[in-house]
Amino acid sequence: MTTTVLSARDRMLRAQSAARSVGLLSDRAKSTALQAIADAIEAATDDIVAANAEDLARGAESGLSIGLQDRLRLDATRVSALAAAVRDVAELPDPVGRVLDRRTLANGVELTKVSVPFGVVGSIYEARPNVTVDIAALALRSGNAVVLRGGTAAEKTNAALIAVMRAALAAEGIDPEAIQTVDEFGREGARELMQARGIVDVLVPRGSAQLIETVVTESSVPVIETGAGVVHILLDATAPLEWAREIVVNAKVQRPSVCNAVETVLVHRDAAERLVGPVVGALQERGVTVHGDAAVAALASGIVPATDADWATEHLSLELSMRVVDDLDEALEHIRQYSTHHTESIITQDDAAAERFLAEVDSAVVMANASTRFTDGAEFGFGAEVGISTQKLHARGPMGLPELTSTKWLARGSGQVRV
Amino acid sequence: MTTTVLSARDRMLRAQSAARSVGLLSDRAKSTALQAIADAIEAATDDIVAANAEDLARGAESGLSIGLQDRLRLDATRVSALAAAVRDVAELPDPVGRVLDRRTLANGVELTKVSVPFGVVGSIYEARPNVTVDIAALALRSGNAVVLRGGTAAEKTNAALIAVMRAALAAEGIDPEAIQTVDEFGREGARELMQARGIVDVLVPRGSAQLIETVVTESSVPVIETGAGVVHILLDATAPLEWAREIVVNAKVQRPSVCNAVETVLVHRDAAERLVGPVVGALQERGVTVHGDAAVAALASGIVPATDADWATEHLSLELSMRVVDDLDEALEHIRQYSTHHTESIITQDDAAAERFLAEVDSAVVMANASTRFTDGAEFGFGAEVGISTQKLHARGPMGLPELTSTKWLARGSGQVRV
Question: Is the model's pTM score more than 0.90?
Answer without folding.
Answer: yes
